[in-house]
């Protein structure tokens, strides 16, 4: 997987017009069928989890290459275009209220694929935890509003979900892939795409946060009253909030609006009582407890540092770009061979699609406009 930094995903309002979605659905079905036939369902999932290919695919279908709407529209179109029985791939979930239907849709698709109840439950758990991690374990100011869970007949999965920052009106997309996810809580992403790289963002999924994760679990396994005393002991008398320990980033509007962590008002002590009764064995189990949200995670992480000296990572994990640079290796070098391969696969799929010559020509023209000049000339 190649990584090149930061991508532009400005928030755009409105929705794709009906005349466009009809054409997008037709072409998406053709490209998907060709890719599954030629490369298999696993390769199709891998491509969708490649942010460059995903964005280029949206461009080929006819959507704005740089818009945050690419995420919701492309996954929505794929949900309509893909048939579990025909393609062996299905899309569950979606934007807003549709995301809440993901577990039921996983069960429905699992029935068509012949999955056992245990498989279905495990997939539903994975869906829930990927959303929990990106909403809670990573705190960069983005609230998830879109969650798409892609599932194959072989039980492989991918997640494409997106969060929004109301403070600076930017979006951030998270790509997950079962083949590359060894742990749900330790650097699990295939890629994270965003317009803004925060100066400071709490990242409990970083490898360097391992000590803070373990300390957080140890703290949460103590009786709630003892945890409350830890919070109070960690706060000097002259300070009003653990917010004072948050690294400052004056130029970042999100940090200026960051909700203060005040004890005990923003901490659900009922939730910590449930955690104590559950006695989680690891950080994943801690996150899985209902009610454990951003304030609880942040509070435990800060106390882990102040009481036990286990520092969490404050480095923003956003790590992919196709919009800026790359030729000079800043912030990351471009894997040109992987980029060229992605473009070639899309081009061949469009050319082989059973659609009109005019549609093919327009799609290929959009793909050429999307490809950076340095990639064309390399």
How would you describe this structure to a colleague?
The protein is an alpha+beta fold. It folds into 2 domains: 18-197 and 318-377, no CATH class; 207-308, no CATH class. The chain is built from 16 helices and 7 strands. The strands form 2 sheets. Strands 1-3-4-5-6 form a 5-stranded antiparallel β-sheet, with helices on both faces. α6 packs antiparallel against α7. It is elongated. 43% of the residues are buried. Mean pLDDT is 81; it is low at 1-12, 256-264, 322-333 and 374-378.
Question: What is the fold's blueprint, element by element?
Answer:
Elements: H1 18-39, H2 41-48, H3 51-61, H4 69-81, H5 84-87, E1 89-95, H6 102-113, H7 117-137, E2 138-139, E3 143-152, E4 157-165, E5 170-177, E6 191-194, E7 202-203, H8 210-220, H9 224-234, H10 253-256, H11 269-278, H12 283-288, H13 294-308, H14 336-352, H15 357-370, H16 373-377
Antiparallel strand pairs: 1-3, 2-7, 3-4, 4-5, 5-6
Sheet/helix structural class = alpha+beta
Strand content: 5-15%
Largest sheet: 5 strands, antiparallel
Number of helices: 16
Rg is: 22 Å
Distance between the termini: 19 Å
Which of globular, elongated, flat, extended, rod-shaped describes the shape?
Answer: elongated
Query: What sequence of helices (H) and strands (E) makes up the elements?
Result: HHHHHEHHEEEEEEHHHHHHHHH
Biggest sheet: strand arrangement: 1-3-4-5-6
- Overall helicity: 40-55%
Taking pLDDT < 50 over at least 5 consecutive residues as the criterion, the unreliable ranges are: 1-12, 256-264, 322-333, 374-378
Residue-averaged pLDDT, rounded?
81
DSSP strand count:
7
Number of domains: 2
